[in-house]
Amino acid sequence: MAQLTGRKESRMRERLRNLYLAGILNRxxxxxxxxxxxxxxxxxxxFLDTKGGELxxxxxxxPAPRGTESKSRLxxxxxxxxxxxxxxxxxxxxxxxxxxxQWRGELKDILTIDGxxxxxxxxxxxxxxxxxxxxxxxxxxxxxxxxxxxxxERKFTTYxxxxxxxxxxxxxxxxxxxxxxxxxxxVARILSKLETPFPYxxxxxxxxxxxxxxxxxxxxxxxxxxxxxxxxxxx
Length: 235
Description:
Blueprint: H1 2-5, H2 9-21, E1 25-29, E2 44-48, H3 50-58, H4 76-93, E3 99-101, H5 104-107, E4 109-113, E5 116-120, E6 124-128, E7 131-137, H6 151-160, H7 163-170, E8 176-181, H8 184-194, E9 203-207, H9 208-214
Parallel strand pairs: 7-8, 8-9
Antiparallel strand pairs: 1-2, 3-6, 4-5, 6-7
């Protein structure tokens, strides 16, 4: 935040604390609290409280009042990764106009596939230069349903069925889905698993280190051709 605002870090810490005391921001430590006295305290993660969401809306920074009184520590790492990706994208665009959405209620959609209802809730949506993307941050291990299908495979299937409804809702012809995994090794395992059932270029997979180092590079692989091709957001 100090880098984004051009302020000194000490000044930014003071501002955040004052906004917290005023009830505009809320905060939580980034890991479970510990009772061991010699361990260093965990850093705070700040987010808009309900009062801050109302104020941001009144000032024109949000399309609707959005804030929360609490945030689960189990989701902190996941939510921070969304923010880190957003900042990396923002810096890479260097002032170019773009759209960004990440409010769950705004992004949620319900699809019917083979008579069953499927909820689709991306972690974020963004677009620039007439290109549209959904973002999926994966921190936890894959879970499996009774039919052996993993949660990632189910979401792949849902996204494949989403094209028509997407075009009507977002006024964009097509989209890509960016999946961010913790490591390259995990990306490789997922790609090998999905190349046969999902041989599509719609899904772009990368790892945290790659996008943090150079989000403008060709750092994305697809199940269709990951063995010999990479893709980039700006290519």
